[in-house]
Amino acid sequence: MAQFATIIIPCRNEEEYIGKCLDSIIAQDYPKENLEVFVADGMSDDKTREIVADYCQKYSFIKLLDNPRKFTPFALNIGIKNSSGKIIVRMDAHADYAKDYVSRCIGAMNDSDADNVGGRVMVMPRDNSLASRAIALCLSSFFGAGNAIYKTKIIENPVEVDTVFCGCYRREVFDRIGLFDERMTRSQDMEFNMRLKRAGGKIMIFPGIVVKYFPKASFSDFFVHNFWDGVWAVYPLKFVKMPLKLRHYIPLIFFLGSLSLLIVAFFWKPAILALATSIIFYFAVSLCFSLEVAIREKEWHYVFLMPIAFAIRHFGYGIGSFYGIIKLLMPIHNHTTNSHW
User: Fold this and answer.
1) How far apart (Å, rounded) are the C-alpha atoms in residues 310 and 301?
2) 3 state SS of 150
3) Cα angle vertex 45, ends 44, 50, to 5°?
4) Which of 114, 119, 151, 264 has the most CB within a 10 Å radius?
5) Segment 206-237, tens digit of pLDDT
6) How confident is the model at residue 190 (pLDDT cuts 50, 70, 90)?
7) Which of 67, 278, 96 has the alpha carbon at shortest distance from 185?
8) What are phi and psi of 66, to 5 degrees?
């Protein structure tokens, strides 16, 4: 008999994607009598709530939950507290799920001793613009995503990892180690999974589980997103001991090195040469990866677009991490008043 499962979708102002996300859930081959879907909405001021309410009227297993504090960890915890499922499946409104996604997640969990399972993320362009396609390719590249297995590698067998995209959890995990840290308005999944691993839990990726994810479509939005990702690679250290992988800090190291050389150059001219050398080396490496993408995709525009996407990814993240260091030195304030937090 199928286990009862709860799907939780945190969202805010997702009128463009929430319908597509819910359609992919409705199309799941998992028995609907053993499924409840919570859309935990952060008081959207677009048509998101209206769209979800329409789905709620048509499908009794879909419910709209209010998240007056707006941010993701609050949404997740509201969903968990209201859940009846022995399995908790977190889903993202910006993603599309194969019809066997839920059944594969639960099957993989039952066939293993894992506490949290996930799959490979196929990063897809949000639209057909060159910028959107370049951003998707950037996030699928080793140069853009580092060694994040769930984004860049095609695996043949299940493998144990530190974190997965969204994740499918055993309900008892939350009873054992607590809920998501509500101070972490970003990176809450990484902090939770770190806590889970420290408690002896196991997190695994299974190759048969695939998610299509749609990132930002414009370079300006991509920069803002990476900036705040960079902030939250560092700022959580104010609350918890959460060392991340080296790939999370390389943009910060490069940015601080470049900034230091620039400052030193005002007093010691040879530093200009060192700065120029490092920047030239960076763009040479970027160009090599860009050429590889252009050849693989058979599209010469990427020779020019990919260096832009890579630079936005790295410098946006690095600058954000530098700002995160500044935030570490400032008194804690009510960050939930900031729309980006």
Assistant:
1) 14
2) helix
3) 75
4) 119
5) 988 988 889 999 999 999 999 999 998 888 88
6) confident
7) 67
8) -80, 135
Query: What tokens were used for 278?
Result: 């490092």
Q: Where are the domains of the chain?
A: 5-217, 237-337
Range scoring the smallest mean pLDDT among 50-54, 60-64, 190-194, 241-245:
241-245
At residue 169, φ and ψ (nearest 5 deg) are -115, 150
* Gap between the Cα atoms of 245 and 196, Å rounded: 17
CATH of segment(s) 5-217: 3.90.550.10
Return the number of other C-beta atoms located less than 10 Å from residue 270's C-beta. 10
Which of 252, 259, 256, 266 is CA-nearest to residue 321?
A: 252
Q: Which two tokens stand for residue 186?
A: 């970003």
331 burial type by CB count under 10 A (0-12 exposed, 13-18 middle, 19+ buried)? exposed
- Written as six digits, the tokens of 254 are 């490069």
